[in-house]
Amino acid sequence: MTGIASEQGKWVKAGYEWWAEDVNSRGGLLGRPVKLIIYDDESSAEKAVTYYERTISVDKVDLVSGGYPGPSNVALMPVMEKYKKVSSARGPREIL
Hints:
mainly alpha, 3 helices, globular
């Protein structure tokens, strides 16, 4: 929520929080509640890669969302391919 994309990140974070609340009010996703895990990569592609690795390999998330701004997507896609994950590739690199 800091760095060059901080303003956009705050709005997208609010959108993800609304989405999670809405999904959970209807029973969750695939029968489970959605739990947001959000790390601040400070608008750094290098930190985004570190957090993607962490959330997939340590936090064991099922769904990854993020990749804003566009240049970070280039750095993040190899991580997604490595772990065979799908990403929505939008938002301020929030991890679900």
